[in-house]
Design goal:
The structure is a single chain. This protein is 35% helix and 22% strand. The chain is an alpha/beta fold and 419 residues long. It has two domains: 226 residues, Endonuclease, Chain A (2-Layer Sandwich); 157 residues, Endonuclease Chain A (Endonuclease, Chain A), CATH 3.30.870. The strands form two sheets. It has a 16-stranded mixed sheet that branches. β6 and β7 form a beta hairpin. The longest helix is centred in the first third of the chain and has 15 residues. About 2% of the residues have low confidence.
Length: 419
């Protein structure tokens, strides 16, 4: 279903408690996707993912990709500086550092122009931001809320808001892997360690749905949203998108099934970049099946990492992947934090979800699937550029790794549902 005109959905799709039909689930939908004559460029693919997610496909979007934190945050600051009515910001990490303070300053200037500004951050991810930082924001007229504060949500400690969303006037939005902190968004580096991430700026009707996604998190944090109709697309040309948003009890199965459909519909290449890779057995099987069909399946995963236990959990899957022809690379130039996917240079996914247990069971996440040849080609070029700074994991070398490494991988893999 394509969304035309004003936003007509009163609630997010998929709805909470929805029962996904058996043939559309992650373990089985690949068969339907494989049967499509032209793969992801087949008209039936768009209909299939719309059936899975039950949300609208938005057309008429203009997409710009960022692979540098400096460029991404410069664009964000420019968009906020031009806001006329509303700025919505939802992030996992909000830090009281140079990047955080600069953004707060621009948000405060927007408030001074009469713009309503709402900021939502996850309490666990933003624990380092002291109460004085939040008091200062509120004194500047910025409405701020924390998702699941420790002192009031002890039973909800497993559930985190991992989304990264900024929406300006429901016309422009940003999403991807970048949080609001020095290591993500500026030339300032955390202890001189560089980070590699991906973010997207989308102008068009997608922004209206991301505002609705923000409203869900804001409401769950105790805030009151002000519903407004989305701004309709002015023209048909541009990228089509499907928003894949989820939280505990809503959307996780649909997101997993859409990703499985992408794997099944791939024909030439399936290139995945992911920072915290600890997938379940179904995902390993589907990737292996795609490689055995002749698809060029490549995984770009972290070399240096801030989460070594999760990296070891990913290592526990390398042997099975390599045995089925999946090529695995580890990025060396920086801490890899991007969560992206590109299929046949046509469909891309940019967002916040890691390929791990937490992202598909406990976290609130937001990803945008983009159907656009230009965006797909740019994503493929970025992947190839990243491979120049990566080391391929060769089966003959991998199988000779030390026993201690093997035991650590096996233990971490067993613990992966808890990470």
């Amino acid at each position: 279903m394509r969304a035309r005109g004003a936003w007509i959905y009163a609630t997010l799709r998929p709805r909470a408690g929805r029962r996904l039909p058996e043939e559309l689930r992650a373990g089985t939908v690949g068969r339907l996707a494989e049967s499509l004559a032209s793969g992801v460029s087949d008209a039936g693919f768009e209909r299939l993912i719309a059936r899975i997610d039950s949300g609208p496909i938005h057309c008429g979007n203009q997409v710009r990709l960022f692979f540098s934190g400096e460029e991404a945050f410069a664009s964000i600051l420019e968009a906020v500086a031009g806001a006329a009515e509303e700025v919505l910001l939802e992030t996992y990490i909000l830090r009281d550092d140079a990047t955080g303070r600069k953004l707060v300053g621009v948000l405060a200037e927007a408030v001074g122009r009469g713009v309503r500004v709402q900021v939502l951050a996850d309490n666990y991810g933003s624990w380092a931001a002291k109460r004085s930082f939040w008091r200062r924001m509120r004194s500047l007229g910025i409405e701020g809320r924390l998702f699941h504060p420790f002192w009031s949500h002890l039973r909800g400690l497993l559930f985190r808001d991992h989304r990264k969303i900024i929406v300006i006037d429901r016309r422009v939005c940003f999403t991807g892997g970048m949080n609001v902190a020095n290591e993500y968004g500026s030339s300032h580096r955390n202890e001189d360690v560089a980070w590699r991430d991906t973010h997207a700026r989308i102008e068009g009707p997608t922004a209206g749905e991301l505002a609705l996604v923000f409203g869900e998190g804001w409401g769950r944090a105790g805030g009151v949203s002000q519903p407004r109709p989305a701004v309709p697309a002015r023209e048909r040309s541009g990228a089509s998108t499907l928003v894949l948003d989820s939280r505990a009890g809503r959307g996780h199965r649909e997101t997993a099934a859409v990703l499985a459909a992408l794997v099944g519909a791939s024909r030439k290449r399936l290139w995945i970049t992911n920072s915290y890779f600890a997938p379940n057995r179904t995902a390993i099987r589907l990737l292996g099946c795609a490689a055995q069909r002749g698809v060029d399946v490549r995984l770009l995963l972290p070399g240096p990492t801030d989460m070594p236990l999760v990296r070891h959990a990913g290592h526990g899957n390398y042997s099975a992947l390599l045995a089925h022809g999946v090529r695995v690379f580890e990025y060396q130039a920086a801490v890899l934090h991007a969560k992206t996917l590109v299929v046949d240079d046509f469909v891309s996914v940019v967002g916040s979800s890691n390929l791990d247990f937490r992202s598909f069971y406990f976290n609130a996440e937001c990803n945008v699937l983009i159907l656009d040849e230009g965006t797909g080609r740019r994503m493929a070029r970025a992947f190839e550029e990243d491979l120049d700074q990566a080391i391929e994991v060769r089966p003959e070398v991998w199988h000779r790794r030390p026993l201690a490494h093997r035991l650590g991988d096996a233990l971490a893999r067993c613990l992966s549902p808890l990470l």
